[in-house]
């Protein structure tokens, strides 16, 4: 929570942003170098953290996601770059950003929790926030994400106001797509945001399990710069400075307290579109949360991450996705499909020749 005496305008409060991470211990090296662990989770997520997009991207193409993990990430496209720039501009409209250099992984998570407290405080004071961190567990795997926007809106014909979760996407064309053209990956991304947000709002926060999973020391005090910032800007620490040491154990208590004032989000989810060329608003499309859909997708995705199954290629009718894929030339699924098609052609020629 921001100290209102120091910054009376809640729309221009300071938000901590990670500038860089210099950890004292490398959690990932021992996991990545363990050749006996073959699951994608063990191989590519040594930090023990999966991201919301790790689940939603699988709905676009599992092989593309798998190859991106092997390659250490996808090449940044113009669309991706434009999207990042627009997101940054939108965030700066609501608040200033302060960069703080972190020295430990506890510092890094301290910033995430502080940003979450800041966002919840914005929801309670101005009924809107952007770039809200959230987290939780999916089948025992820790998942982290950042919601583009949460805003209180009046939805439908009712007089009730609800927290509406939305995600901002950019388009090369200056008009909205058809409702039926919202990609499943976008829907799953928003549905998982809602699922995690609602669980936190209901008080489902197992801090001990989180600290153990991420191998964090909850009692380690933050580095001086971050500790001083939190003491100055977080009212909960100002009021209880003597008993509240600036560490993860006490900061997550503030998170739990703030979420106790928040209620579950709307079942209507929003996709907000911006024109890639100049960032102007194109409007929004809405769809309804589907518990069965997201649970089925998470179950299937978790089996991939845990190594219980191999990645699957897209259906043949969605092979158009391969056109702009940077991994297409060496894609196992694509090459196998081409081989199958060639075999069918040869078989058809043989059958045809046998009839003449």
Automatic annotation (TrEMBL):
Keyword Nuclease: yes
Pfam families: Exo5 (PF09810)
Entry-linked Gene3D superfamilies: 3.90.320.10
Coiled-coil parts of chain: none
UniProt keyword terms in alphabetical order: Exonuclease, Hydrolase, Nuclease
Cellular component terms per the entry's GO annotation: mitochondrion; nucleus
GO molecular function: single-stranded DNA 5'-3' DNA exonuclease activity
InterPro entries for the chain: EXOV, PDDEXK-like_dom_sf
GO biological process: interstrand cross-link repair
Family recorded in the similarity comment: Belongs to the EXO5 family.
Name of protein: Exonuclease V
Origin organism lineage: Eukaryota, Fungi, Fungi incertae sedis, Mucoromycota, Glomeromycotina
């Amino acid at each position: 929570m921001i100290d209102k005496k120091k910054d009376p305008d809640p729309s221009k409060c300071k938000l901590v942003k990670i500038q860089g991470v210099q950890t004292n211990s490398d959690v990932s090296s021992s996991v990545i170098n363990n050749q006996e662990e073959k699951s994608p989770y063990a191989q590519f997520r040594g930090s023990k953290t999966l991201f919301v997009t790790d689940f939603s991207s699988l709905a676009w193409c599992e092989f593309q996601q798998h190859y991106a993990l092997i390659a250490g990430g996808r090449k940044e496209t113009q669309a991706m770059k434009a999207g990042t720039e627009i997101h940054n501009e939108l965030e700066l409209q609501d608040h200033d950003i302060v960069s703080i250099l972190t020295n430990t992984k506890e510092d890094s998570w301290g910033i995430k929790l502080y940003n979450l407290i800041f966002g919840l405080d914005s929801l309670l004071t101005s009924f809107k926030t952007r770039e809200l961190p959230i987290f939780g567990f999916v089948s025992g795997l820790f998942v982290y994400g950042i919601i583009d926007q949460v805003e209180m809106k009046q939805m439908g014909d009712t007089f009730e106001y609800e927290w509406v979760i939305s995600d901002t996407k950019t388009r090369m064309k200056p008009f909205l797509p058809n409702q039926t053209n919202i990609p499943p990956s976008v829907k799953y991304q928003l549905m998982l945001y809602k699922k995690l947000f609602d669980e936190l709002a209901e008080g489902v926060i197992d801090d001990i399990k989180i600290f153990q999973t991420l191998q964090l020391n909850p009692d380690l005090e933050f580095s001086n710069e971050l500790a001083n910032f939190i003491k100055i800007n977080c009212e909960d620490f100002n009021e209880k400075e003597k008993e509240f040491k600036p560490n993860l154990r006490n900061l997550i208590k503030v998170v739990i307290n703030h979420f106790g004032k928040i209620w579950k989000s709307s079942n209507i989810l929003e996709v907000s579109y911006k024109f890639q060329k100049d960032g102007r608003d194109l409007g929004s499309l809405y769809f309804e949360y589907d518990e069965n859909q997201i649970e089925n997708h998470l179950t299937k995705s978790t089996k991939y991450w845990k190594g219980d199954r191999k990645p699957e290629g897209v259906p043949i009718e969605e092979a158009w996705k391969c056109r702009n894929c940077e991994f297409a030339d060496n894609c196992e699924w694509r090459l196998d499909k081409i081989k199958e098609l060639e075999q069918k052609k040869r078989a058809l020629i043989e059958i045809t020749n046998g009839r003449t």
